[in-house]
């Protein structure tokens, strides 16, 4: 802004006036692209503008050492209201419904069971669950959980003061949190192991220990598997046995993203999972589960805040400390549920409140339905093409010369506009579905045509053997003995360790079809090993060329990767697929494999059982042995 008006920023800070402040915020609200030329999502809420003003005041204070004049501050509040009205900003607040423990359980089960959403690597799916289970008891800001390091975790075997079996305590310290209002003290949360749960889906210990054993983080050289935990005891007269972690992992992040390798995916050494990535995953799982409202990480923070407030074991000061609040005002303004979580009529009449019913009605999952649409049908997606704006853009595109820069830009604009309209249509359909479906259900029931047990089938790929084993291990029942609990816990940890190495690949979006064209349902005949193995044999035979003139339409590195998978792994179908032309296979090879290779990397061809010394050697090998020109 100072460049636009040709003024020095520091000088502008020291000589603020209503005119320059109004023009600055008006200019900011009109911005459509950032300094790098990328399109901005824009400010849509009045509360966002208010937050921007608060941050601006802090910037002025840090730059000049003085606070903004209180009189100017009061005038600016009126100006912000005028700007919000001028730019049509909404004053509607975000829904702050809590995610109950029942909703959390369903969210976790869907995360582990679904194949509609893939996480590239099995460990990322486990981390998505662990994030929820650490966020729920802490009620912390989501970003502080994502920045958790192995050095912030402490595990101990603790003696039960009431005489029960030894308990594994997990302590995690949240050292990173919001700091623009000043540095906050690190807080440590202690979570004890809960014996004899009906299932292990809600056990953070199982997932965390699975990650620790997966990366061999324990300092004791012999502590390499969960079975060894059963052998440990506490010295007489002592209360705890620490389970120390290796010092070299102290600065290593727990929540790291998956990165592409030559033929698959692996966990990154230092690239973190961002808040945006985790928020998108949680939102998508909520859509698959059938929640009406967008599922956000802050739903768990709201739940923890309200749970702490209603607990007789937690004081107001302890609640504020856990939430990083200086006083109770932020809780009352933003966290206290606006859906009144109390049976006020029963209380007024002196009757027993129906608290369980009220609690369910005020939760995120009160209107959950597996029938709720998650994606557009083919007909709905095709209706976008008849939109006047799309027709106008397509007409302009046809008039442009092929290969020109203007045509490429117009094509990008057309694709972005189609995507925007599809998202808008999908949100509209999901928003209107609850009432429309309710009317349809009422009419069907009154006509006697309603079937309450109708199953909604979706065209998803089947679960792999490792995913089935994982879900079965976590859902296993306990035989009410401590030995049986240890056995169940260890089996679940081993299943998690095994699943962490599974490569899921990217999410494959399959188009929905209309009811007039019944879709093929996976899981009835595609789980058989026959079709997958036949496709793999065909691909293996095709990529072994006899002359350099042969041009197969397969990728030999992907086929080699398929040889390492289980016979029933659904990824075999994608890895052993036949491209439309040999040129398409070459394009795939350059984009997917060559683009991430350095010249000095050593590569192994599983099809030929041969080591290739560098990138050039790989290209020559691909041409001579497999007919792949790159």
From TrEMBL:
Q: Which organism is it from?
A: Bionectria ochroleuca (Gliocladium roseum)
The lineage is: Eukaryota, Fungi, Dikarya, Ascomycota, Pezizomycotina
Q: Which domain of life is it from?
A: Eukaryota
Q: What is this protein called?
A: C2H2-type domain-containing protein
Q: Which residues form the C2H2-type domain?
A: 605-626
Q: Which PROSITE patterns match?
A: ZINC_FINGER_C2H2_1
């Amino acid at each position: 802004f100072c460049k636009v008006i040709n003024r020095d920023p520091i000088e502008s800070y020291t000589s603020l006036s209503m005119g320059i402040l109004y023009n600055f915020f008006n200019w900011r609200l009109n911005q459509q692209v950032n300094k790098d030329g990328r399109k901005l999502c824009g400010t849509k809420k009045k509360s966002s503008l208010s937050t921007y003003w608060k941050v601006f005041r802090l910037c002025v204070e840090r730059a000049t050492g003085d606070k903004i004049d209180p009189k100017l501050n009061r005038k600016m509040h009126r100006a912000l209201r005028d700007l919000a009205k001028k730019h049509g900003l909404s004053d509607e607040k975000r829904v702050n419904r809590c995610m109950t423990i029942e909703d959390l359980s369903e969210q976790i089960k869907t995360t582990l069971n679904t194949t509609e959403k893939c996480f590239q690597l099995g460990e990322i799916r486990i981390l998505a669950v662990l994030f929820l289970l650490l966020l729920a008891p802490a009620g912390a800001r989501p970003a502080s959980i994502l920045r958790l390091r192995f050095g912030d975790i402490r595990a101990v075997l603790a003696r039960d003061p009431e005489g029960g079996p030894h308990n594994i305590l997990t302590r995690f310290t949240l050292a990173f949190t919001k700091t623009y209002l000043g540095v906050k003290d690190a807080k440590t949360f202690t979570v004890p192991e809960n014996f004899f749960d009906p299932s292990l889906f809600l056990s953070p210990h199982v997932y965390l220990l699975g990650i620790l054993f997966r990366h061999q983080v324990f300092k004791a050289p012999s502590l390499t598997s969960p079975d060894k935990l059963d052998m440990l005891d506490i010295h007489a007269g002592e209360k705890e046995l620490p389970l120390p972690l290796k010092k070299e992992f102290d600065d290593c992040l727990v929540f790291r993203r998956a990165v592409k390798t030559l033929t698959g995916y692996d966990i990154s050494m230092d690239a973190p999972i961002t808040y945006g990535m985790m928020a998108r995953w949680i939102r998508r799982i909520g859509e698959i589960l059938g929640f009406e409202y967008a599922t956000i990480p802050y739903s768990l923070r709201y739940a923890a805040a309200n749970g702490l407030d209603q607990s007789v074991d937690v004081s107001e000061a302890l609640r504020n400390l856990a939430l990083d609040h200086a006083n109770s005002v932020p809780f009352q303004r933003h966290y206290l549920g606006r859906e009144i979580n109390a049976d006020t009529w029963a209380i007024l009449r002196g009757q027993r409140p129906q608290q369980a019913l009220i609690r369910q009605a005020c939760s995120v999952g009160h209107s959950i339905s597996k029938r709720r649409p998650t994606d557009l049908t083919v007909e709905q997606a095709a209706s976008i093409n008849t939109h006047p704006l799309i027709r106008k853009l397509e007409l302009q595109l046809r008039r442009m010369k092929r290969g020109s820069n203007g045509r490429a830009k117009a094509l990008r604009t057309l694709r972005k506009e189609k995507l925007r309209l599809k998202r808008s249509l999908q949100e509209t359909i999901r928003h209107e579905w609850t009432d429309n479906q309710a009317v349809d259900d009422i009419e069907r029931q009154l006509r006697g045509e309603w079937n309450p047990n109708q199953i909604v089938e979706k065209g998803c790929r089947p679960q792999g053997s490792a995913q089935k084993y994982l879900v079965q291990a976590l859902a296993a029942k306990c035989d009410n003995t401590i030995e049986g609990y240890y056995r169940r816990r260890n089996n679940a940890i081993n299943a998690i360790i095994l699943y962490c190495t599974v490569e899921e690949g990217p999410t494959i979006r399959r188009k929905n079809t209309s009811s007039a064209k019944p879709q093929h349902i996976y899981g009835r005949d595609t789980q058989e090993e026959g079709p997958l193995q036949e496709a793999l044999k065909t691909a293996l035979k095709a990529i072994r060329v006899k002359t350099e003139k042969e041009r197969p339409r397969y990728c030999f590195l992907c086929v080699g990767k398929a040889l390492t998978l289980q016979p029933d792994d659904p990824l075999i179908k994608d890895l052993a697929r036949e491209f439309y032309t040999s040129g398409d296979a070459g394009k795939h090879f350059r984009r997917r494999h060559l683009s991430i290779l350095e010249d000095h990397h050593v590569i192994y061809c599983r099809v030929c059982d041969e080591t290739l010394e560098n990138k050039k050697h790989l290209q020559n090998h691909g041409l001579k042995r497999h007919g792949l020109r790159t």
